[in-house]
Amino acid sequence: MSNLPPIQVIGGGLAGTEAAWQIAQAGVPVILYEMRPRRLSPAHHSEYLAELVCSNSFGAQSSDRAAGLLHEELRRLGSIIIGKADTHQVPAGGALAVDRALFSQDLTETLAHHPLIDLRREEICRIPTDGIVVLTTGPLTSPALAEDLRRFTGLEYMSFFDAASPIVMGESINFEVAFRASRYDRGEAAYLNCPLDKDQYLHFWQQLCTAEQAELKDFEQETARFFEGCLPIEEMARRGKDTMRYGPLKPVGIFDPRSGDFRAPENRSKRPYAVVQLRQEDRAGQLWNMVGFQTNLRWGEQKRVFRLIPGLESAEFVRMGVMHRNTFINAPELLSPTLQFKTRPTLLAAGQLVGTEGYTAAAAGGWLAGTNAARLALGRSPITLPPATMMGALFDFISSASPKHFQPMPPNFGILPELPQRIRSKQERYGAYRDRALMELLHWLSRVQAA
Asked: Domains in the chain, start-ordered, CATH in brackets?
């Protein structure tokens, strides 16, 4: 066992789980604090570490997509989050999706049995003043700790509203209407598709626009912004009659294989006006997530309106959609690219708390914060990743963006340095970004390991 004092990680979400694992794997003891189940959050449902709340998908799996590139970088860096996601993967077309219950349970058991990890189920109300500390409390930081963080930084939290989609029992779906298909018949037909004709769509849209919303909880009463990448479906509907048809209900390339060859001219009239897609939630295919249907409607209204969708007339909902407030700090003012606080380098932060968006980005932040916390404990200098990698670009962005207009940032190719030569083809350009990032990561790893 190490004689080093333990590093304290506060928060057992994706970032905290990754951070604690990287610290322990470096040979440094760590205390991981998680307040659940002693104190519940408005969005979580279990006491497991790294519980996935909004979706079971980590995003696009292909490494020539931004999320997929981040997956691959983390695989090469020994991420436990991505490792377990690969282990518990379920079919989801081109996405990396997991059986969320098995995923979180496996992570919890793995960390609990690590000899250098002390998992403590208690709420931390103040930032510890001694030693190395990693804050990974996420968007639902407890009020007491959030207030202490506000006092420490001298800045108010920023916030937006996030929401989760309903989950439907597979046996309650009408498979005489719903059909399996992939867009443009590409790859595995991993999604269920519920087609709507024009009259059905307009009726659904009208009912959705007028459906009654749930009241916000006390802690969500103040004005906040929606995150544009996760709009409630009813908010999207209110923005225009066709907004959903250009978003999650986009029918382009979706065709019922029972109708014959979608390329045949005589079948063009059979193409749906809009399509609701459902993504497999568990390995057995018993649970299906309504893609893009994050919502804040009252539960009774959700059942009434969503059962207007053909194929979901008798849908049994095992989880209703919910909406909650996400909070984050003004990272450009407070953090360096190493995820250390500028005014206290022994205090680090990661996850949605620092303004990264998405599960994989949270794991990436946990990897960097945990790695740097361990390096500090071992008397080594903290590291940053090459800016041409997705991880390096993401943490460079959140630490250098304009503080006045800072908003949560998901992984995307727009934050990477430009390529030496312009490539017109988007597919080839993204492939070039990927090749450069992985080569840079390989060279960087060899230098770090040799140091």
From this structure: 7-157+329-450 (3.50.50.60), 164-322 (2.40.30.260)
Is 369:350 a contact under the CB 8 Å cutoff?
yes
Instruction: Give the residue among 107, 141, 111 at the shortest CA–CA distance from 127.
Output: 141
- Output the average pLDDT for the chain: 88
E strands along 239-286, which residues?
Answer: 274-280
Between helices 359-377 and 66-76, what is the axis angle to 10°? Answer: 30
Instruction: Report the distance separating Cα 430 and Cα 444, nearest Å.
Output: 21
Three-class SS of residue 346? Answer: strand
Ranges 66-80, 247-261, 361-375, 420-434: which has the least confidence: 247-261
Tokens of 379: 């008397």
Q: What percentage of the chain exceeds 70 in pLDDT?
A: 89
Q: Alpha-carbon torsion 358, 363, 367, 370, what sign? A: positive
d(CA 114, CA 159): 35
Residues 6+ apart with CB under 8 A from 335: 329, 341, 342, 349, 354, 398, 399
Q: Would the pLDDT of 217 be above 60?
A: no
Give the separation between CA 297 and CA 305, rounded to whole angstroms. 10
Query: H or E segment at 153?
Result: helix 143-153
pLDDT at 58 over 50: yes
Task: Write down the pTM of the prediction.
Answer: 0.76
Strand partners, 225: 160
Taking the C-alpha atoms of residue 134 and residue 148, their distance in angstroms, rounded to an integer, is 15
Let me know if 154 is exposed, middle or buried by CB neighbors in 10 A (0-12, 13-18, 19+).
exposed
Give SS3 for 316.
coil
**What is the tens place of the pLDDT at every residue in 299-312?**
999 999 999 999 99
